[in-house]
Amino acid sequence: MINFNKSIIERYIWNNIEFLVKRDDLISLYINGNKAYKFYFLLDMKFDSIASFGGNQSNAMLALAYITKQKNANFTYFSKPLSKYLLNNIEGNLKIALGLGMKLEISNNLEQDTLLFAKNTNSIFIYQGGAFEMARYGIKKLADDIVALGLENYVYFALLEQELVAFICNIF
Q1: Contacts by 39-45 with C-beta closer than 8 Å and gap 24+?
Q2: Average pLDDT, stretch 79-99?
Q3: What is the value of pTM for the model shown?
């Protein structure tokens, strides 16, 4: 179950500066943090199939596997060839995603093969890590949630690189 209300705010003090940390890691066991917000738009969307690509221990892979399981939809994920060790010892996010019903396809041309597959199967194509336009809806929800906290005496920091990190700091 995905529950954004579980994202509580915790208070920490370091060097006499109060920090409030938004605990997005508590949203769900399988989808949390920035992936919960990046894929927020999928929660109310009706779809039959998703195709994506990336690393074989990707948080995005696991999040998409969980969402598609909840939606009773298909999920096909393209990744580079697995190491001998991982082939013999499926573990981590890959093991969980496969257990949720994800279909794994091995490819050396990840983006191209995933795009072709998505086109041929009428699947929603999701770029590696969820870095695509539709992610803006969830990131806006995150920003709105932070503003709704009404912390006028706090400064908000958000670092957007590969991942979204948000924290709130009282410097007054």
Answers
A1: 39/63, 39/64, 39/67, 39/126, 39/130, 39/135, 39/138, 40/137, 40/138, 40/141, 41/134, 41/135, 41/137, 41/138, 42/67, 42/71, 43/2, 43/67
A2: 96
A3: 0.84
Question: What structural domains and CATH numbers belong to the chain?
Answer: 4-30+135-170 (no CATH), 33-130 (3.40.50.1100)
Grade residue 162 by pLDDT with cuts at 50, 70 and 90.
very low
22 neighbors 166 (Cβ within 8 angstroms): yes
In one-letter notation, the amino acid at residue 137 is Y
Which residues on neighbouring strands pair with residue 19, listed in sequence order? 12, 169
Which DSSP category does 153 fall into? Answer: T
What pLDDT does residue 163 have?
Answer: 47
- In the numeric block, which tokens belong to residue 26? 């508590």
